[in-house]
Amino acid sequence: MAIIDPFKDGLGRGWKVFGGRHAGAQPLPERISCDVAIVGSGAGAGITAELLTQAGLDVLLIEEGPLKTSSDFHQLEREAYPQLYQESAGRKTADKAINILQGRCVGGSTTVNWTSSFRTPDDTLAYWQQHFGLKDCTLEALAPWFAQAERRLGIGPWLAPPNENNELLKRGADRLGIRAATIQRNVKGCWNLGSCGLGCPTNAKQSMLVTTIPAALERGARLLVETRAQAFEHDGSKVRWLDCVPVATDGSAASDRTVRVSAKHYVVAGGAINSPGLLLRSKAPDPHNRLGHRSFLHPVVASAAVFDQRVEGWAGAPQTIYSDHFLGVDPIDGPIGYKLEAPPIHPTVFATTMAGFGLEQTRQLKQFPHTHALLALLRDGFHPQSPGGRVRLRDDRTPLLDYPLTAFVMDGARRALLSMAELQFAAGAREVIPTHELARSYRSWDEAKREIAALPMKPQLTRVFSAHAMGGCGFAGEAKLGVVQPNGQHWQLENLSVHDGSLFPTSVGANPQLSIYGIVNRLASGLTHRLTGRTVSLA
Ligand SMILES: Cc1cc2nc3c(=O)[nH]c(=O)nc-3n(C[C@H](O)[C@H](O)[C@H](O)COP(=O)(O)OP(=O)(O)OC[C@H]3O[C@@H](n4cnc5c(N)ncnc54)[C@H](O)[C@@H]3O)c2cc1C
């Protein structure tokens, strides 16, 4: 079956893409004027660009990553991580205890994400209403915005049977009497390859790369690639212009040229960590010391298990089964809860996430085809002892996240390792290996229970990672509680809005992409109306 690459066709028809080294690249201009300049091209940026261009606004998207499309995606980790991810998929928190996966390419993290789609949970929204004055963040008020995003992005039930990696989550949960259910995905005509994290080679994933960004380009939007929004020039109440710089594939400055962008309105959608980083570099007003604070990750711990049968966790749709059982054991503001999912497992990511070295690691890698993995997403941000992290700037002005793994978080990590081991043994595992430097391979649930209970749950010893950066530019009903207003507009800079995952005042408690699509859909429709008086909705 022929795979149509929308960019090949679109660039041929005159789509305006500047910078970078892709086929059809045009040189970066020195000065650009537009109605709205959007920083980023990921989840929040894509939705915003589609809506603004629908109202006839002249939109400019600025993306620091490269333009890579389905023709470039070869299902190879060695190509995907350096080309498509922030810091080659090796972005770390300041103490190097957490590895963070974030996209850095046209389409942002949506180009490489794993397609799980959940609406924002009701208890999360209730917490935002109560603690952050976000009165309109109710399930009912957001439902139409989610429904539109779901329609636009093909979000629906995954009807194919789960791969064995996910089936084992269901099997173990059933045997323990724990509820597990099917995850909705944003795909159309999915080939069930399992390489979503390496860029979808068939364009089945309805990422921003194949949906909203092409729609915006078709309506005349301009896109700068391999170009970083460096800093806003402002007078404390209004942005005057935005300076951008060309960057190399590894993120370093490619030249000392500056591209100056003048717009009537600016939308920051560089994702968590990067968006607060840009506003910190710009010395944006921050009278209540909120900028960069309350950055969340859903810190993740994982557990591998070896089965007699082949599992082949790299093959077939990732994350199609989940269990929220352990999010409901305690109240949302009690001991930290966690969501269980079965992630895709590819050799490089597996080898770098699993603990251990030498002969033991060789033994584990030899069993790779028989290996199953579970992960637990810890729901951070709802308890006083879970204030998340803080973004600050390195000497070279790039953003860095300090995220202390407190005893409170690590208590959840231990409980999660225990729950996953129990479930894996219930599913028939012959051995279970938690991702902890001092863990061994355990042969029974009794042994695992005793040993995991005694593991020192310390940063660096416990392997922690995250693909869900959120917060840092939180929205709130009062200026003292957040960086931006409930409509996304900056509390102090009147012609600047934030439209991405950095808006969330806590973690979501579910995979965040649909929360961003739905909430930004509402904010971007509102912005379009304020700028043009026109009502728009997702195509
Ligand atoms: C491997 C992986 C798997 C995931 N799986 C899922 C999943 O299954 N389900 C789910 O719900 N979520 C998943 N996520 C998370 C989800 O994709 C993100 O939460 C979401 O895309 C974030 O949207 P955003 O708009 O905040 O930022 P992003 O989508 O990350 O986009 C931000 C973009 O802005 C660019 N940028 C940043 N700073 C600048 C700057 N200064 N100048 C120019 N450009 C800049 C970045 O390069 C990036 O392309 C996954 C993420 C990853 C990395």
- Find the CATH superfamily of the largest domain: FAD/NAD(P)-binding domain
* The first-level CATH class name of the largest domain: Alpha Beta
How does the major sheet shape up?
Answer: 8 strands, mixed
Using the alpha-carbon principal axes, give the shape: globular
What would the CATH topology of the largest domain be?
Answer: FAD/NAD(P)-binding domain
Molecules bound to protein: flavin-adenine dinucleotide
Which CATH-level-2 architecture of the largest domain? Answer: 3-Layer(bba) Sandwich
How many H/I helical runs? 14
- Output mean pLDDT: 96
InterPro entries: FAD/NAD-bd_sf, GMC_OxRdtase_N, GMC_OxRtase_C
Domain Glucose-methanol-choline oxidoreductase C-terminal: 384-519
Protein name: Oxidoreductase, GMC family
GO molecular function, one term: flavin adenine dinucleotide binding
Describe this entry's structure for a reader.
- Keywords: FAD, Flavoprotein, Oxidoreductase.
- It holds the Pfam family GMC_oxred_N.
- Belongs to the GMC oxidoreductase family.
- GO terms for molecular function: flavin adenine dinucleotide binding; oxidoreductase activity, acting on CH-OH group of donors.
- Helix content is about 30%, strand content about 20%.
- The chain is α/β, with parallel strands linked by helices.
- It folds into 2 domains: about 30-65 and about 105-155 and about 205-295 and about 470-530, FAD/NAD(P)-binding domain (3-Layer(bba) Sandwich), CATH 3.50.50.60; about 165-185 and about 300-465, Cholesterol Oxidase, domain 2.
- The strands form 6 sheets. Strands 1, 2, 3, 10, 11, 12, 13 and 24 form an 8-stranded mixed β-sheet that branches.
- A hairpin with a 5-residue loop joins β19 and β20.
- Bound molecules: flavin-adenine dinucleotide.
- Flavin-adenine dinucleotide binds near residues 40, 110, 112, 197 and 270.
- The site of flavin-adenine dinucleotide has 43 residues, from α2, α4, β11, α9 and α14.
